[in-house]
Amino acid sequence: MVQPIPRPLGDLAGPRPVQPSTAQGAAAQKGAAAPPAGASSAFARQVQQRLAPAPALKWSRHAHQRLAGSGRTLAPHEEAAIAAAVDRVAHKGGRDSLVLFGDLALVVNVPSRTVITAADDVRLQDGVFTQIDSAVIVPPALQDQPWRAGPLARKLPVPPNDGRGTTS
Known about the structure:
Layout: H1 20-29, H2 39-51, E1 58-59, H3 61-69, H4 76-92, E2 96-101, E3 104-109, E4 114-119, E5 134-137, H5 140-144
Parallel strand pairs: 1-4, 2-5
Antiparallel strand pairs: 2-3, 3-4
């Protein structure tokens, strides 16, 4: 059993801080490797990457051609709503996801945030999508209202009350 070392009464100010130079010196004497230079900066980079906002969506050439061929363009708030849907799928662990956005269906590779293909209502007639592991539907309220397509777009809006106790 290890006995504690008695301290003199004059040393009641509390515990003394550990001196890092003595610990490093002891490790160097034993031949142990010191922590690599820049280890703290690597940690800081990891923290910054985790806290940074998710990058915008990338569009494959095929998806871009499909979208242009349908005559459909996306406004910035619509792309933001799709990106928010991809964020939700990423949080749930999806890898290749079908994103239903109004009359568009987008197949998105979630880890790379790349839209692989796009199908409009004409191409949706077949209704078969393969090699996906998840699906997300962008609510209509987020499709039409640019102020709702940000990080706070997680909650669906409450329908207005028509005054008769029912919602429309």
